[in-house]
Structures are given as structure tokens and as C-alpha cells.
């Protein structure tokens, strides 16, 4: 299928449909015929003229059997003028639109896989209105783009952005139109901005972490808009709920993890971080996944687990903070180093008791800030849920309508 913004016609999508309709009018009897018994050129009486219906011709570029969402209705009238156009969906709802000259355009695109009834009222020269009606069915593409939301419908950490996910890539040219349909209501009100994390993810984050107890309602009314080489199938909405503001502050050089809830210190945990050559990255990461038990294997990043620097070990109380493999987790084999020496392969290790406490204290989406010295530098956005890897002014530039 051709891209939805293409103007060329395809064999699959027939050329513009032309529907010529004459408005309803009662058939006059012979005795009512104003021309009966009259010679050529005899004027039609005003009362008879009022029964003459205009001829209405309605067209759509791609036809009424497979109309495209962005099609505009062209209406030509002979013997009168258009006074009203009404378009209704299959559920009986009116479709808002504007009639300009001979064209009617919906306020927003038609939906795909939908049926509409189009009624055109045209007045004849005597001012009598005649309705004419036609049915239209929009294209049924093989593929469509659907919208969903990550981490909605449950309480999450106060660093997590609102995630709008598209299951097909959205091109640079399509993003602004889609983003303009996205709205968010936060309680309490907080300054924030949309930003495109990648070609399938539109995210909204506040300027600072979500305030404790915040809620957010988000709507994306992009149905019928082009996305990738097809269209968005339906509108979508979701609700987000945030709890206490938990922030994990890790000092790489001082080997400590300070856990704050709503600004108050709940715990300070001795930790060991990445050793030279395997340094832990600085910057703000988010808790992405929680796994009680996992097997960590150096061969996952190309180091033979039988080599001097290799390993394959079952690890407990794991909380992922980067895709490349940084975690908070229990490291009982390194208890002698917690709080004084960095000996890990990049993870933040601690005693089993502390790892258990931390696992139960956090939520998915809690921000984890790492400061100190690291040869690896700051974590890149792609390696975590990276909306906080940008400062506020840079984040705003990721909006397609900024």
C-alpha cells in the first residue's frame, strides 16, 4: 500500500467516485404539469418550479468504497446551491466539518475501517431544500498503527514519564500532527513537555520529578492520522498515578546510596560499584525492572565466563537500571568491600539484607541519580528510560511542535 500521504491513485484504491443524486420530490400528475398544453417556451409557474430538485454530484478522491481518512468531499450542484452537509458515523454521531465553497472537510480525518452516511441538502432556485444521501466506507488497510501506554493503571515511581507507544514507526514528518492531538491533565498542575524518545515513543515528563501523590490523565486523539505507511486506528486514553517521591542518590566515590522519601532520608546503604575498567555510569537512571532472581553471565556481553574476568552467577533482589546491564542487587560475595571499595562490573552491590530492604522500598520508575567519578561518563538516553538524561531546555527540543 502506498504511503497515506501519497497523492497518486492505485489500482487497489479506485479513482474518485462520482455520485449524482437528485433530491426527493413528489411526481406531479398530468393535471399539475405546468407545461401541459403549452407551446415551447411557455414559462413554468412559480408553484411548479418549487418542485424541481437540484442535481447534486458528490465525489471523493479515492471513492466511496475505499475512501481515505484525509479525503475531502467535493460537491457540485446544478440548479441550486448547497445549504447544509451532514456526515454521521455508523453509531449515529455527527462528524464535525466545514463547508467551504464546493468542498466539505471534516475537522479531523475520517477513521479507517468505518462507514459514514453523507447527506447533502441543496436548495433550488425557489429556496426549497432537497436532501440527498450517499454511503461511504473508508479503507480497510492490511496494517494499522495502534496506540498504547506503558505503566498506566497502577502506581509507579515519580521519575517515570507518561509513555505513549505506537506499534509502528512514526516518521519525522508525521510527528507534529500526532503530538498536537495529545493532551495531558495533571493533578496538581505541573509544568511539563512532550518529547519523542524514538520513532515509536512519545513521552511527557514534568520539569522536575512528579510531586508526591500526583495523577495524570492523558488522551491521544490521533485516529485517522497518517503513521508510518498506514493510519492510526483509534483514539486512546490512560490514567497514571504516582506515590511518594522516592529518590536514590548514589555517590560513586564515597561508596554510598542515600534513599530519600519526600525529601527525608530513610536509609544510607554502603555499596560497591564498578571497578576500574568496568565503571558505573553517572547520570539519572530509572528503575526499569525488578527480578527477585536472575542469572548474570559475562558471556552476554562477550566475556567468556571461564576467563579471569568472567562470571556466571545467580543473583538475588535485582533491580535493572540500564539495558546494558547495570543493576542494584545483593552481592554477598563482596560484603567486605561495601562502603569502601568499588569492585563490581558496573552494578551497585550491597549486602543481602540491604538489597532486600531496597527491593521492597522502591517502585518501578523511581529515579536513581549517580554522581562521582566515572571513566564511562554519563548514561546515554537509550540505555535507560532516558527522559532525565536531558536537561529541561534540551528535553523541550524533542517535541515536534516546540
From TrEMBL:
UniProt key word Transferase: yes
Gene3D superfamilies referenced in this protein's UniProt entry, alphabetically: 2.60.40.3710, 2.60.40.3780, L,D-transpeptidase catalytic domain-like
Lineage summary: Bacteria, Bacillati, Actinomycetota, Actinomycetes, Propionibacteriales
UniProt pathway annotation: Cell wall biogenesis; peptidoglycan biosynthesis
Segments passing through the bilayer: none
Alphabetized CDD domains for the sequence: YkuD_like
SUPFAM superfamilies the record matches: L,D-transpeptidase catalytic domain-like (SSF141523)
Residue segments, region Disordered: 26-50
Any Pfam family matching the protein: Big_10
Active site: 329, 347
Record bears the keyword Transferase: yes
UniProt entry keywords in alphabetical sequence: Acyltransferase, Cell shape, Cell wall biogenesis/degradation, Lipoprotein, Peptidoglycan synthesis, Transferase
Domain named L,D-TPase catalytic: residues: 246-371
Protein name: Lipoprotein-anchoring transpeptidase ErfK/SrfK
Entry-linked InterPro entries: Big_10 (IPR041280), LD-transpeptidase (IPR050979), LD_TPept_cat_dom (IPR005490), TAT_signal (IPR006311), Transpep_catalytic_dom (IPR038063)
Amino acid at each position: 500500500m502506498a504511503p497515506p500521504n501519497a497523492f497518486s491513485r492505485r489500482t487497489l484504491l479506485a479513482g474518485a467516485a462520482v455520485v449524482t443524486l437528485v433530491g426527493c420530490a413528489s411526481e406531479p400528475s398530468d393535471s399539475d404539469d405546468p407545461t401541459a398544453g403549452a407551446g415551447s417556451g411557455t414559462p413554468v409557474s412559480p408553484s411548479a418550479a418549487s418542485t424541481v430538485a437540484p442535481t447534486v454530484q458528490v465525489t471523493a478522491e479515492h471513492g466511496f468504497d475505499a475512501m481515505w481518512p484525509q479525503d475531502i468531499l467535493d460537491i457540485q450542484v446544478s440548479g441550486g446551491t448547497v445549504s447544509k452537509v451532514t456526515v454521521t458515523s455508523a453509531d449515529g454521531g455527527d462528524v464535525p466539518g466545514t463547508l467551504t465553497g464546493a468542498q466539505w472537510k471534516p475537522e479531523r480525518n475520517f477513521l479507517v475501517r468505518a462507514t459514514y452516511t453523507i447527506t447533502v441538502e441543496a436548495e433550488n432556485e425557489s429556496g426549497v431544500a432537497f436532501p440527498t444521501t450517499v454511503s461511504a466506507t473508508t479503507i480497510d488497510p492490511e496494517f494499522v498503527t495502534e496506540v498504547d501506554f506503558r505503566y498506566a493503571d497502577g502506581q509507579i515511581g515519580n521519575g517515570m514519564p507518561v509513555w505513549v507507544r505506537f506499534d509502528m514507526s512514526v516518521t519525522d514528518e508525521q510527528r507534529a500532527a500526532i503530538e498536537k492531538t495529545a493532551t495531558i491533565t495533571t493533578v496538581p498542575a505541573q509544568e511539563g513537555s512532550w518529547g519523542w524518545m524514538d520513532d515509536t515513543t512519545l513521552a511527557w515528563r514534568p520539569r522536575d520529578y512528579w510531586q508526591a501523590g500526583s495523577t495524570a490523565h492523558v488522551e491521544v486523539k490521533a485516529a485517522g492520522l497518517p503513521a508510518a505507511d498506514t493510519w492510526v486506528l483509534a483514539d486512546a486514553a490512560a490514567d497514571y498515578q504516582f506515590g511518594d517521591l522516592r529518590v536514590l542518590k548514589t555517590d560513586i566515590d564515597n561508596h554510598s546510596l542515600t534513599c530519600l522519601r519526600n525529601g527525608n532520608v530513610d536509609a544510607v546503604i554502603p555499596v560497591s560499584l564498578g571497578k576500574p575498567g568496568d565503571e558505573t555510569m553517572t547520570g539519572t537512571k530509572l528503575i526499569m525492572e525488578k527480578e527477585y532472581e536472575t542469572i548474570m553471565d559475562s558471556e552476554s556481553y562477550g566475556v567468556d565466563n571461564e576467563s579471569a574476568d568472567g562470571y556466571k552467577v545467580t543473583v538475588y533482589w535485582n533491580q535493572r537500571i540500564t539495558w546494558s546491564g547495570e543493576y542494584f542487587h545483593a552481592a554477598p560475595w563482596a560484603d567486605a568491600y561495601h562502603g569502601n571499595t568499588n569492585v563490581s562490573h558496573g552494578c551497585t552491590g550491597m549486602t543481602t539484607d540491604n538489597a532486600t530492604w531496597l527491593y521492597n522500598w522502591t517502585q518501578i520508575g523511581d529515579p536513581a541519580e549517580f554522581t562521582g567519578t566515572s571513566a564511562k561518563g554519563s548514561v546515554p538516553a537509550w540505555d535507560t528510560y532516558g527522559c532525565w538524561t536531558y536537561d529541561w531546555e534540551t528535553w523541550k527540543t524533542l517535541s515536534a511542535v516546540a
